[in-house]
Amino acid sequence: MNKKQKSIWVFGDYRNYFQNRVTLQLISKAVDLARLISAEVCAVVFGHEIEEWIMEYTAHGADRILAIDHPSLKSYSTENYLTLIEKLAREKDPEIILIGATDFGREFAPRLAKRLNTGLSADCVGLDITQEGLLVQIAPSFGGNMLAEIVTEKYRPQMATVHPGTFKEIPHNYERKAIVERLPLMDKLPQPRIRLIEYERAVAKEHTIENATVIVCGGRGLGNKNNFKKLDELAKLLGGDVGATRPVVYAGWADHKALVGQAGKHIKPQILFSFGISGAIQHTAGLGEAQFIIAVNKNPPATMMKMADVAIVADASDVLNTLIKELKKRIRE
Amino acid sequence: MLNIVVCIKQVPMVTELPWDERTGTLRRDLASGMMNPACKHALEAALQIKEKFGANVAALTMGPPAAEEILREALAMGTNRGILISDKRLAGSDTYATSLILAAAIKKECPRCDLILCGAYTSDSETAQVGPQLAEELNLPAAAYAENMEINGRTLRVRRLVDNFRETLEMEFPALVTVSMEKYLPRYTTLAGLENAFVGGNISIYDADDLGISDKATERQCSRTHVRKVYLRKAQKENVVLTGTAAAVVNEFLNKYENKISAAIGKTIEEKKPGNE
């Protein structure tokens, strides 16, 4: 008898643009992994009027779609989706299940893993296959400073949630074909214990320092509270937020809300200015996802200067004042 | 009166990271610890419910003997009792095993508990998985990322922001909620409160035998995942060093990186032509 075809499942999370993209990114990675273990890529999607997603998943690389389309699945329900996917997974025994590390995915995947008696790693930033055919799940810890390679040796499916943006989606090809299995809703869906009372799209993403694009951070190297307050002016020019280190918060130069680091906020700006910060690990533990770092410090060997993309060796306060003056002249709205 | 259990965790201060090279796990016995920041938000939520409705609040943790410190801190904040599960055989548990162990402790010590609260995630392993898996283990309805909770009789109403949707959910007790870091800012613990909590305080300590799970919960058998390797994320930075007077370095910086800054701020930064002062 032929060995059963292995399958890598990707859960179809589509409620907003961002969730949809991470699903497509995972299908793309699943295509790579599937080659290494001779598996098929199967997208699983639940909801009502989901033809659009079936078409998208096909166009972006899925070999098979398992779809359950029913009016009672119109709004996202962790409980209903769990019941459905648990039943399917028990029937079809996938080798791997990948789920986007969206808010939904990070609530849904742990319960699914527990129901299937298997392991799960969180918010992975890399996936690979070992020589023995095991899924290597590369997960961040300590604010992204450390990476751990995790495997689920003895249990199946091997499960991971994956950080959005980790993989690149395959460009769509609407000529592609996939096997689409339209499955009926199971007869007795248990009565959900959670009632959705209100549900609305948040008007605009609430602005917090955690999702700010530009952040200007200051430390003791700025000298005094007055110098530190100049950061507000720079932040305003750049449309950014002000962050602070712990000594500065303790000294009363900044509010506790501005604390960036292990005991404070974890930030992920595109641009991070760091003025007069030496880079104690209590602070840098919150910077794991900053993309481009400019550090200003008189002391070149400071940790912050070593981890910066641009290290400016000069007095932090002088550079801050000059930068404000220059930007005022040069910025065009 | 409501019975609330808050699951908390001691996390290492990241000033030192003593990894066990052999097992690829953190030597928690060597790291100095603190209460995970998100757990303080969960405690705060429990204490606000206690003040408003009356409740018995128990703090539950698993860890080395030193984890008793965070239970003392929880007592100082206002919880009624602390429960520590400490057993070397449980070290290195993954979230699958941890949720099984915590569930066993809750079944033994607080079988009639109405509400279980957890922090949103821990600052060390950051999985955010133990809360949902504990709910599954105890077969409870659960909601993650709660920003607000209201209680009306046996009904719990939770408001939350998930994937850019505002949701209001309702469920009946017993239930499990993980608390968002955005709201329920933790109260300040006074020194006097801390002192009292260290002198007296109701703390129970159990091992795997006490919980009746020594056969199934010890590490290599129960954990589903294993860490093969841990390493520092590789720096891939160019690390350009600029030196000179403030005016010179700012000028050089803006001329070199104006594109990058412009793209991030959505405004154009003009390049300064030589001599157009």
Mean of the pLDDT scores of chain A? 92
Strand order, sheet with most strands of chain B: 11-10-9-12-8-1-6-7-13
Helix content of chain B: 25-40%
Number of individual domains of chain A: 2
Largest sheet of chain A: 7 strands, parallel
Helical/strand content category of chain A: alpha/beta
- Structural class by SSE content of chain B: alpha/beta
- The CATH homologous superfamily of the largest domain in chain A is called HUPs
What oligomerization state is this entry in?
heterodimer
CATH class of the largest domain in chain A: Alpha Beta
Give the integer mean of the pLDDT values of chain B. Answer: 87
Write a structural description:
The complex is a heterodimer of chains A (333) and B (277). With 333 residues, chain A is of the alpha/beta class. Chain A folds into 2 domains: 6-183, Rossmann fold; 209-330, TPP-binding domain (Rossmann fold), CATH 3.40.50.1220. Chain A has helices at residues 17-37, 51-59, 78-92, 103-115, 225-238, 246-250, 281-284, 303-306, 316-330; strands at 6-11, 39-47, 64-69, 96-100, 120-124, 126-129, 135-141, 146-151, 158-162, 179-183, 195-201, 214-218, 241-244, 271-275, 292-297, 310-313, 331-332. In chain A, helix 2 links the parallel strand 2 (39-47) and strand 3. The longest helix of chain A is centred in the first third of the chain and has 21 residues, at 17-37. Chain A is elongated and about 70 Å long. Chain A starts with 5 loop residues before the first strand and ends with a strand. The mean pLDDT of chain A is 92. With 277 residues, chain B is an alpha/beta fold. Chain B has 2 domains: 2-222, Rossmann fold; 233-277, no CATH class. Chain B is built from 7 helices and 16 strands. Chain B has helices at 37-53, 68-77, 95-109, 130-137, 191-199, 219-222, 246-265; strands at residues 2-7, 10-12, 19-20, 25-26, 33-35, 55-62, 81-85, 115-119, 142-152, 155-162, 165-172, 175-179, 203-206, 226-232, 240-243, 268-269. In chain B, the strands form 3 sheets. Chain B has a 9-stranded mixed sheet, sandwiched between helices. A two-stranded antiparallel sheet of chain B has the order 2-5. In chain B, strands 3-4 form a two-stranded antiparallel ribbon. In chain B, helix 2 (68-77) crosses helix 5 and helix 3 (95-109) crosses helix 4 (130-137). Chain B is globular.
